[in-house]
Amino acid sequence: MTAGGDVSDNCGINFASFALLSETGGPVNHVRTYKISDFGGQTTTCTQNVTVNDNVPPVMTAGTIAACYNSVAAAEAAALGATTAVDGCPGSLGKSVSTSGTCSAIITVTATDVAGNPASVTYNTRIDNTPPTVTQGTIAACYTTAAAAQAAALAATTATDNCPGALTETAVVAGTCSAVVTVTTTDQCGNSAAVTYNTRIDNAAPTVTQGTIAACYTSVAAAEAAAIAATTAVDGCPGMVTKTASTTGSCPATIIVTTTDQCGNSAQRTYTTTIDTTPPTVTAGSIAACYNSVAAAQAAAIAATTASDNCTGAVTKTATVAGTCSAVITVTGTDACGNSASVTYNTRVDIAGPTITTGTIAACYPSLSAAQAAALAATTYIDNCPGAVTTSVTSTGACPTTITVTASDGCGNSSSTSYVTRIDNTPPVISCKNSTVTLNNVGTYTLVAADVLNLGATSDNCGAYT
Ligand SMILES: [Ca+2]
Ligand SMILES: [Ca+2]
Ligand SMILES: [Ca+2]
Ligand SMILES: [Ca+2]
Which ligand is nearest to the CA of 356? Predict the structure, then answer.
């Protein structure tokens, strides 16, 4: 037979009827049953024991698995699933998988055919179930943007992993004034660990309200303090808002107050004032040696004093007087900011004339000069201030004559006293007349003036005569 084996029949065999009826048993040892008929329709069967001798291992095709797995089981399952194996002989293939290493793991998938021929493929992957070790650093108390806070938190965070390779760091921010930045570090297998930072994210400057300050200050410090006090500021986030001031110029001065929140966001307001730390320049002139009133002395000293100032605006001059006969007048020039400078003058302020004591002179003098000399000599005087006192004498009339003695101090104050006398240097004019007398009983007679004088022709320049 062409198919092998032997066959015989007494009536001849129909070879076309030869066929395989069944095949039983395993892939290595199985039993085949054949049939064949003769031309008379008689059929018979035979069995064949077949032993397969297979020494060709399966053909294995490696697929693709992920770069990393969190467990050996997952990695091996993936390797098994990715691997195909076919064998030239029937029968199921036995598959096994084994793993060596972790971060650089090698997974071996082995397929074995029925005859025990093995074949393998290997996969390189990573098996990492350990998250990175993350170390928290320090970030600032405040940032003006979420991006800056994230960047700082990322930079402050360090991480190491049990396996080599780059770690991925990400940061997210929740909140603003009390923000929490979460930095998550992820290894190449997706294992992650996180740390958090508390900070503030504030990009809004304080809201500033400008007040008013005075027109003038005598120091930069005082002006800046006033400008700071006049400025109020509130911020969207809690915490102190700091205020600082800077000044340019003096007459006028510009003061800028800067308010800054705890994140460095700032807003400014500008004030204009005058800062004058320099007193006026006061120059003394000359005044008289003496004045007879306080007001006159003050007015003279003020008028004699010149003043100028470094800033525009009037300089006010005032004067005070101390003392009298040796008076000191202080003239003070004050600028618009209250800075002042003074000069002094020495003079006399004398408001009292000499004190005069009137004496006594004769009732009559033969000459005016004699009478005046007598009046001067009879008069004594003393002044309240030291210094020369001058005298003068005036007269009016003759019979009688009023002689006035005036004593003047050096300040124009004077006192006077008067004397009444007679100045008579002219003898009477007399005219006698004849007279006839009659003796009385004792032999005498009496003559009165009218008996002697011709009264109509008798006179004196001073009037009365005796
Ligand atoms: Ca890891
Ligand atoms: Ca703010
Ligand atoms: Ca000044
Ligand atoms: Ca006087």
Answer: 4
